[in-house]
Fold DUF4430 domain-containing protein.
Amino acid sequence: MALRLSFVLCLAALVQLFGCPFLAVPLQETPIKVSVVIEASNEATQVHHTSTMPGGSLLGALRRLQHTDSDFKFTVTEDPDYGHYLESVNGVAGSETDHTYWQILTDVHGDLTPIDVGVGCYSPKAYEHITLKLTTW
């Protein structure tokens, strides 16, 4: 017990003396390029946007894209149990009346596949193609 206490006190003294570089290791983030395609009608009108991001969540990438591209706008709603979900893209909102919602798809080996987590939890990979598609349920 005394040995543990001595170790903790020595560690605390070292942290105060030298700082704490071993506890505050900076993340080495390499910017990645992500392509976003928006499909909002039956005619499959596609609008392409590209964002470079340092890593992180799709929500962060979309926010960066919104700040750098005036033609791209989106809104999210935060559910206390399920987190963020896309509410609208470029002024087009999902609708309970029309049974529509914004589905998020990723291009996996040429096939569009729904992501398995929400926009706030999904981490795009470098050069990934993300499709935001207004979908009917």
Notes: The beta strands are 32-39, 46-53, 74-79, 83-89, 92-93, 100-108, 111-114, 128-136. The mean pLDDT is 78. The longest strand covers residues 100-108.
